[in-house]
Write a structure and sequence with these properties.
With about 260 residues, the chain is mostly helical. It is about 85% helix and about 0% strand.
Amino acid sequence: MKSLTTFLQATGSATLNMLAATGRVTLFILDTLRQAFSGPFYLREFGHALIQIGWLSLPVVGLTAFFTGGALALQIFAGGARFSAEAVVPSIVAIGMARELGPVLGGLMVAARVASSIAAELGTMKVTEQIDALVTLSTNPMKYLTLPRVLAATLAVPLLVGVGDAIGIMGGYVVGVTRLDFNPAAYIKNTVDFLQLWDILSGMVKGAVFGFIVAIMGCYFGMNSGRGAQGVGRATKSAVVSASVLILAANYILTELFFSA
């Protein structure tokens, strides 16, 4: 009986903590969105965030997409051979990259690179009281630090996903032509014929949602970082883990919304 009571207490405490954390994150999101409807707007911070999040993430997203597209082509060819359906490689690679692998892997790569960077930067600023100094100078930290990063990530990640899709399809093309003996012209024709506009747009919408999640998690955990190096380290880890889990959960929900029969 005592063990059952202990289990129920632990479960109840964990549930209350999770609900409290959800409430705090929701209030943080609402506060961030509220800042978008009134000035001043810090365009220089927005431009800097756009370069940091978008342009500098392109190499890691591109390399991930290229090798994923190549591996996907090999896997589909091997699996399709069991049903004499090797010819579906171009179309499945294109649809798989545009709908799922491009946005999800791109989002996770950006989460690993950007959420950790934002959390560490803002956490260090909090520990060294730079955020308090902003308040002293009558500068709203949410407007100056959070809003530019969230807007930049929401706009940049869909573009990264679009470029990643193209590079991933190119990776499948290279493997298909050089390793699987596909005719180059036939591979491109099959890709174009089966890939629809909504396949690409749905992946870019996912990218916008994932970018928003990445920036919000990085800013939230950075702004609420604990003291010292350990506090900043915990904030960085929590930002990456939370962003990754939320990206996968959001991907399932969006896929249900977009493609459920």
